[in-house]
């Protein structure tokens, strides 16, 4: 089975210049919390995940314990940092190192890549290197379960025979 047969189509995307507030809003509404960043030709430039947003935006807890960390920033430093973060765009937040699948690739290759790189979702590119959709680990497992359902049924029958 090919990736194109299992991939989800038409993912929400943003451009590199999309402001932080809009990125945050879209990611919070997404089911899978991964937002592809594409250029005007729909070429993948990076992805933003909920984790990326949190890592970039949640202040380091040490900032609030200056008595334990002598070099901790002052309140003014923290306010300055927040003001800078408000001006961030998708370009500033996106992860540029993205593992992808090709729409004509075998599903097992995509699953292998997910397992090797410990990701659950891969953006899918077509032959022109444009974003075509994404493939989700859960969908691959669902497909595999359906495909091999007869094996589970046989195992269940054997188990029942053995116990009787």
From TrEMBL:
Coiled-coil ranges from the UniProt annotation: none
Cited InterPro entries: CBS_dom, CBS_dom_sf, Diverse_CBS-Domain
Keyword rRNA-binding: no
Alphabetically ordered keywords of this record: CBS domain
Pfam families reported for this sequence: CBS
Domain CBS: 7-67, 94-155
PROSITE patterns membership: CBS (PS51371)
Transmembrane segments: none
Protein name, UniProt field: CBS domain-containing protein
Species of origin: Candidatus Gottesmanbacteria bacterium GW2011_GWA2_42_18
